[in-house]
Amino acid sequence: MFNKILSVTTFISSGCLAPLAAFAHPDAHSIADTALKQPAKIVDCTLENGESAKCAAYTVRFLPETLEIGPFCPATLDETGGVWDWDGENAGLYRIDRAYLEMLSGLGYTFFNDDGEVNVFDIRIEGPEADNECIAGSLDTNADMSITALIPVSPQMAQSPTPLGTVSKIGMGLDGVPVFADAPSVLETGHMPALDTCGGHVDPGGWYHWHATATDIDTVFEKENVDATCAHVKQDQTAQFGYAFDGFALFGSREADGTLPVGLDDCGGHVGPVAGQEGEVYHYHASESFPNLPTCLVGVVAQDNFTTTAAQGIGSANGNGGPGGGRPDFSEPAKALGIEPSDLMNAIRAEGGRDADLGKVAERLGISKDALEAAMPGRRP
Ligand SMILES: [Zn+2]
Ligand SMILES: [Zn+2]
User: Fold this and answer.
1) Contacts of 277 (CB under 8 A, 6+ apart)
2) Residue 71 shares a structural domain with residue 199
3) Which distant-in-sequence residues (6+ apart) come within 8 Å of 231 by Cβ?
4) How many CB atoms lie within 10 A of CB 88?
5) How many domains does the chain fold into?
């Protein structure tokens, strides 16, 4: 049923004269020109279900020219940094300040020294020295650096929704900034990949990305009583934020008329009218709690839909994880080993996380250490 609705609406939205927000499905005009490193184009792509399709290809820089970012990690306890969604005891979204860091210290996670200086490392160029460090990332301002996202032009519903785990790829903002699911937990790595108050930070590859619906994040701060505001991105609860990698649009927490959306599915989307477009289309809404992003994708994404020329990090030829190794993605090695990514991740976690002895992990999984090492080339034995 959805496919029928979608093919009609895609046809209607394929003109180039309507304003940006009118497109509920991506085309070559969907991402802001100022964000693009080269003109967007429609290319042939293959969907995850094996079907051939057309995708919009957006190639962007490490950061849109006009976007200001930060602060992330405060330098001392007397300064205030960005925000972090703490998932241990007293879980919640916090402003990174003295009260928060002292609370964490009381729970055994001390991110500062006796002089009140916060432990910080730059995940692009170095690793952590202490057990608990705030992660900052410097931008890769290399002029050749680029990120390319492929998003299906005519979205298709998948047989079943795809869950979005830690650092799963969600989509791209209209501002040309990639959007990901949860950043890695402090409980997993010991380190805190601080977000700025618009919900973004820098990947080990040196490019900025969102972990929240930046255009509607103040709603979350208000709901969750967090003393923060997003100063760098215009807030609008009804605006389109971007596109998910399945081609469906991401909107703020409200409908165009200001009402709360009704009948949202488990992923946070529904079929309904959107501004500037005739008929009804599937679209996602931001939630009012952090992270205010879809929790799964209902549509089919394109294969190899996210690549970068960065030396490391998500989407790079070297796979994932910078020197800090804070962002594991086990899907490729698990595929090579013929096991479930979650089993691989759990086995590594059970053996101590990123410092795990691969021999012990292999034993736990009932596979050979050689096979495991071969499947995880980016990892130090
Ligand atoms: Zn991130
Ligand atoms: Zn809606």
Assistant:
1) 9, 12, 13, 22, 23, 24
2) yes
3) 68, 197, 198
4) 13
5) 2
- Centre of ligand 1 from the C-alpha of residue 45, in Å: 26
Q: Domain check: are 269 and 359 in the same one?
A: no
Same domain, 145 and 163: yes
Cα of 366 vs centre of ligand 1, distance in Å, is 32
Choose among 207, 206, 233: nearest CA to 219.
Answer: 233
Ligand 2 centroid from CA 156, angstroms: 18
Final residue of a domain: which of 309, 327, 345?
327
Quote the ligand 2 centre to 99 CA distance (angstroms): 38
Same domain, 216 and 80: yes
CA of 117 to the centre of ligand 2 (A): 45
> Is the same domain home to 350 and 245?
no
Q: Regarding predicted confidence, which is higher, 220 or 27?
A: 220
In this structure, are strands 249-251 and 281-285 parallel, antiparallel, or unpaired?
Answer: parallel
Which residues place a Cβ less than 5 A from the ion ligand 1? 183
Q: How far is the centre of ligand 1, averaged over its atoms, from the C-alpha of 294 (Å)?
A: 16
* Distance (Å) from CA 19 to ligand 1 centroid: 30
Clarify whether residues 235 and 379 are in a common domain.
no
Of 327, 357, 372, the last residue of a domain is 327
Q: Which of 242, 277, 112 is nearest to 172 (CA)?
A: 242
Question: In this structure, which residues have their CB less than 5 angstroms from ion ligand 2?
Answer: 255, 261, 272
- Summarised one tens digit per residue, pLDDT across range 37-62 is 999 999 999 999 999 999 999 999 99
Regarding whether 175 and 36 lie in a shared domain, the answer is yes
pLDDT tens, position by position, 143-194? 899 999 999 999 999 999 999 988 899 999 999 999 999 999 999 999 999 9
Range of the domain at 370: 330-381
- Centroid of ligand 2 to alpha carbon of 302 (angstroms): 24
Please tell me the number of the ligand nearest to residue 261's CA.
2
- Domain check: are 291 and 342 in the same one? no
- Residue 112 pLDDT greater than 70, yes or no: yes
